[in-house]
Amino acid sequence: MNGMPKVSVAPDRVTLRPGESTGVEVTIQNTSQAVEHYGATIVGLPRDDLFGCEPSVVKLRPGESGSVQVNLSIPERPAPDAGLYTLGVLVRSPYQREVSRCEELRMDVQPAPALSIEAQPEICVGGPDADYTLRVANDGNTVIAVTLQGSDPERKVGFSFRPRSVQIAPNSSAPAQVTVRARAPWSGQEVRRSLTVRATSGTDLAAEKQVTFVQKPRIPGGPMRVVGIAVAVGVLAAATLAGALVRNARQQADPRNNQTNAAGAQTPGGAAVGGGASTGPAVKGTAPPPPPASATGKPPSSAPPGNTNGKPGVVDFSQLPDGQPAGDRVISGDLYAASGIKLSSNVELASPACKNATGVALRTKGGVGSFLTSSTTADASACNTLPVRIAFTAPARTVRVFYVGSGAMYQMKVELTDGSVLSVTATSQAGVISPMPYDAPDGNPITAVTFGHASTDPNNKEATVIKRLTFTPA
Fold first, then answer.
1. For the whole model, what pTM was predicted?
2. Which of 48, 177, 228, 260 lies most in the core, judged by the most C-beta atoms within 10 Å?
3. pLDDT at 236 (0 to 100)
4. Which residues pair with 103 in a beta bridge?
5. Domains, the chain, ordered by start
C-alpha cells in the first residue's frame, strides 16, 4: 500500500492587499516504497487562475523530497472582503487520486477602501429646481458609511439628498437622489451652474462628480422682445399725439387761424372750401392703396404654394405603419422611417447579458396595451429594460414622448444640432400615460432623443414602455 506524502508549507501565513501577489514554498517527501509523481493546487481561492505552481509535477523516489514554488494573488476588482482566510495546499498524485495530503495556509487580506459616485443626467435643464439620480459604489473590500454633500462656486444652490447617509457593503452600490434648487432668472439668457456632488467616508476617503444645472428664464426671450417693441411703439405714439395736441393748441391761440376757419363755409354744392378739416382727397372717396403682402398675410398670386414640411409628426406604437396590430415582434429600426424617425437601443449601461441588445420591438401586455421597447435582435421579450434612441430624419423643434411607468424616475437625453446633449427628467405615475416634453431653443433644433430609466442600475427589471411620439419639424 502506498504511503501518504509528507507536506510542509513555508511560510504558513501570508498577508496581501487586493492586487498584490506573494509566494510560498511547498516541500513534499515521498514516504512510499515506489516512485511517485506529485502536483500541488490551492483550494479556497475564487478562481484557479489566481495561483500558479512551478514545477507543476515533481517526480520523487522513495524517501526523496522535492519543492514546489506556489505563487498566490488576489484580484484588485472585485477584491475579496478584508479578513483572515484559511486556504488548503493540496498535494496529490495525478495518477493515483487517493494518494494526497492537504495542509493549511492562512491568508490575511488587508482592507483596501475605494469609493466612486455616478450621476444621471450629467446636464439637467429646468427652472428653479432639478433632480439627479446618484449611484454610490463601494469598490473596496470593507463596509463603509458614506455621507453625501453638494457645493457650487457661487453658493447659490441648495442641495437635498435622499438619503444623505448610507452604509454600503463591499463591492456593492446604493442608489440616492438629490434635488438642487436655485433662484431662476426672470428673463434674459439661461444660467449654467456647475455643481459638485461629493461622497465621503471618514476623513481620507472621498469621491466627486461634476454635474451641470441649466436654468431657463421664467419669461422666455421671445415674449420679452414683443413687450419691448410694444412699449417702444407706445412711447412713439404718445410722443406723436402730444406733438399734435401742442400744434392744435397753438393754432387755436392764433387769431388768423380763427379767421380762416370762419371763412371755410360750405358752398351750395355741399363741398367745404377753405382750410376746413374736410378738405383733401378723402372727400373723393378714394380708397387707400392696398397693403403689401406681408401686411395682409397672403402671398401674391404669383407666389408658389406654402411649404407643407412643417406638419407635426405623430407615431403611434400600438400599431404598425400599415395600421395592423403591433403584437409581439422584433422590428427594424427603419420601420417608421416614413414617419420621420429611426429607432435603436442604447446599450451603454446594459448588463453583460444585454450588451449586444441593439434591437427594438413592439410588445403587447395586459394593462398596458401595445408599446415600443428595447430588445435583442432575435427575441422581442429579451432585454426590454434598456433606453430607446429615437433619431429624427430631419431636425425637430419640439418633441413629446408618451410613456407608462410604475412610479420610477425616467429621463430623456436630447441631442441638439450643435452637438450638445441635455437631459429632461420626470417621475412617472403608476399605470398612467405621461408625456416627457422638450422644446428646442431657436436655431438649435433636436436631432435625436434617448428615453429610458433615470436609474443607472443595469439590473433594473422594469421595461421601457413608449406608447407614442409627437414632434414638430424645425
1. 0.45
2. 177
3. 58
4. 89
5. 6-109 (2.60.40.10), 115-215 (2.60.40.2310), 313-473 (2.60.120.430)
